[in-house]
């Protein structure tokens, strides 16, 4: 897994790094596990929800940088199916925070040409959040500059279960032959149907696991991990992650000539 060390020269300014990155292959799809909000807050003696609020500023920073670089798809792990196990007070606060932040930012996102997408079991979210998400997805449906996917009430295994159920219903209805189920059929039954798989997966706060995130889609995704918690993540770190990605040789299981 890539680390921040060596991704950029110490004497290189942010703008010099930006220009170098722009000359290389820009990943079409970047996925991020936004980890460390609660720990960042706890280390400062603050409530965990304060860390989540601070993390929202990093989301804005990364979205702006993605637009600047011409990234096509940015997918953010916002709330997992496992997160429901957290204390009820924290979960309720998170739901309200997500709804408030999306409502606050949607006009600016729309003006910037960002299309909002949501991955996950939306129907299990609070009704007001469901309404906000559906309204904002409809508002931004025609935008082309960037697809911003929020993975909310998302789990990689749950996604595969939902896809399997959908395909089973098609088989039961007689519209799909089981022998015709190939990888592309499964891919098109996932929440990410029609999207390129992530080229780059970034994880903050130093954890070395994928946490049930995009399990089917990241089969050949390059990973980059930083110890920096999400509220402290910066445009510079995104550029370093992409610079490191650009130095790698993606083999997709093949043996390439040296």
Mean of residue pLDDT? 94
Any low-confidence stretches, pLDDT <50, length ≥5? 1-6
SSE pattern? HEHHEHEHEHHEEH
Lateral strand order in the biggest sheet:
3-4-2-1-5-6
What is the approximate shape?
Answer: globular
Number of helices: 8
Any idea of the CATH class? Alpha Beta
| Secondary-structure arrangement, i.e. CATH architecture | 3-Layer(aba) Sandwich
- What name goes with the CATH superfamily? Decaprenyl diphosphate synthase-like
The major sheet is characterized as: 6 strands, parallel
What distance lies between the first and last C-alpha atoms, to the nearest angstrom?
A: 21 Å
Proportion in helices:
40-55%
How many discrete structural domains?
Answer: 1
Beta fraction: 5-15%
Taking all Cα atoms into account, the compactness measure Rg is: 19 Å
Q: Your description of this structure?
A:
With about 260 residues, the chain is an alpha/beta fold. It has one domain (about 15-245): Decaprenyl diphosphate synthase-like (Undecaprenyl pyrophosphate synthetase). About 45% of the residues lie in helices and about 15% in strands. The chain is built from eight helices and six strands; from the N terminus they run αβααβαβαβααββα. The chain has helices at about 15-20, 35-45, 50-70, 90-110, 125-140, 155-175, 185, 235-245, and strands spanning about 30-35, 75-80, 115-120, 145-155, 200-205, 220-225. It has a six-stranded parallel beta sheet with strand order 3-4-2-1-5-6, sandwiched between helices. β3 (about 115-120), α5 and β4 form a beta-alpha-beta unit. The longest helix is centred in the middle third of the chain and has 24 residues, at about 90-110. The chain is globular and about 65 Å long. It starts with 13 loop residues before the first helix and ends in a 12-residue tail after the last helix.
């Amino acid at each position: 897994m890539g680390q921040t060390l060596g991704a950029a020269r110490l004497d290189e300014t942010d703008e010099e790094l930006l220009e170098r990155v722009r000359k290389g292959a820009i990943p079409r799809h970047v996925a991020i596990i936004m980890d460390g909000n609660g720990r960042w807050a706890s280390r400062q003696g603050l409530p965990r929800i304060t860390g989540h609020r601070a993390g929202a500023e990093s989301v804005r920073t990364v979205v702006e940088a993605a637009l600047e670089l011409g990234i096509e798809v940015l997918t953010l792990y916002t709330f997992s199916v496992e997160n429901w196990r957290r204390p009820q007070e924290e979960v309720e606060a998170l739901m309200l925070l997500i709804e408030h932040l999306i409502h606050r930012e949607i006009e600016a996102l729309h003006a910037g040409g960002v299309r909002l997408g949501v991955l996950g079991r939306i129907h299990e979210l609070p009704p007001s959040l469901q309404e906000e998400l559906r309204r904002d997805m409809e508002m931004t449906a025609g935008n082309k500059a960037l697809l911003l996917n929020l993975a909310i009430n998302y789990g990689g295994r749950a996604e595969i279960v939902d896809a399997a159920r959908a395909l089973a219903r098609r088989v039961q209805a007689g519209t799909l032959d089981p022998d015709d189920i190939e990888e592309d059929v499964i891919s098109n039954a996932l929440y990410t149907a029609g999207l390129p798989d992530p080229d780059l997966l970034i994880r903050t706060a130093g954890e070395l696991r994928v946490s049930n995130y995009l399990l089917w889609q990241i089969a050949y995704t390059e990973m980059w991990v930083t110890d920096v918690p999400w509220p402290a993540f910066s445009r510079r770190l995104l550029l370093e992650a992409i610079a490191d990605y650009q130095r790698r040789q993606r083999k997709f299981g093949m043996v390439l000539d040296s």
